[in-house]
Amino acid sequence: DAGITQSPRHKVTETGTPVTLRCHQTENHRYMYWYRQDPGHGLRLIHYSYGVKDTDKGEVSDGYSVSRSKTEDFLLTLESATSSQTSVYFCAISESFTESAYYGYTFGSGTRLTVV
Amino acid sequence: SQQGEEDPQALSIQEGENATMNCSYKTSINNLQWYRQNSGRGLVHLILIRSNEREKHSGRLRVTLDTSKKSSSLLITASRAADTASYFCATDATSGTYKYIFGTGTRLKVLA
What we know:
Strand content of chain A: over 45%
Radius of gyration of chain B: 13 Å
Shape of chain B: globular
Helix content of chain B: under 10%
Largest sheet of chain A: 7 strands, mixed
Largest interface: A-B, 28 and 22 residues
Number of strands of chain B: 11
Structural class of chain B: mainly beta
Oligomer: heterodimer
Radius of gyration of chain A: 14 Å
Helix content of chain A: under 10%
Strand content of chain B: over 45%
Number of helices of chain B: 0
Distance between the termini of chain A: 29 Å
C-alpha cells in the first residue's frame, strides 16, 4: 500500500522470545495504529500513537509494547511471544483529525506472525 | 466488546445483483466508516458518514446512517465479481476521538 510498509511480512517465532514488528510511513501522518486481526474478532486495536513519543493503549494491549521515536516509524514489540499472539498484525495511519477533514485510515499489507 | 457488529456474517449473490450489509453499534458516534478487505490484503477505506448525515453515495456505494437505531447499512449496486471481499464498519471508540473500533465483518462473495 502506498506510503506505508510493514516488515516483516511473515514471521515464525518460538514461544517466549521477543518479537518486534515495524511500521514505516512516508506520508508524515501524525496518527499511527497497530491492530491485530483474528477470525471471529475482526480487527482489535492494540496500541496507537498521536505523535512522536506519544502513545496509548487500545483494547488488547496486554503483552505488547510500542515505541515511536520518529514520525515515520511505529514499532510493536511482543515482549515474550505466546501462542495466543499468533495473528495477522496491521498497521494503519491517518492524518490529523479534524471534524471537517477526516478521511479514514490507510492500512499496511499486514504481518502474519506465527508463534510456535 | 465490539463497538460495531456487521450482519450478515456472510453473503453470496450473483453478479449484477445488489448487496446490502448492516452494521449496528452501541454508543454514540461522531462518524462511521466502511472498509473493504480483499483476501490477504490490508483494509481499504471506502466511505465515511458523519453523525449528522443520513445518506451518502460514492459510485456504486450507498451508505445510510440511523443514529436513533444506532445502525448503518452499506449497499453495493450492480455487484461485480471484483466486489468479492470482506466489508467492515468502524466507529470512533469514544465520540470525537481518533480511535476506531472495527466490527467482525461481512464476507461477500459475488458469483460470476
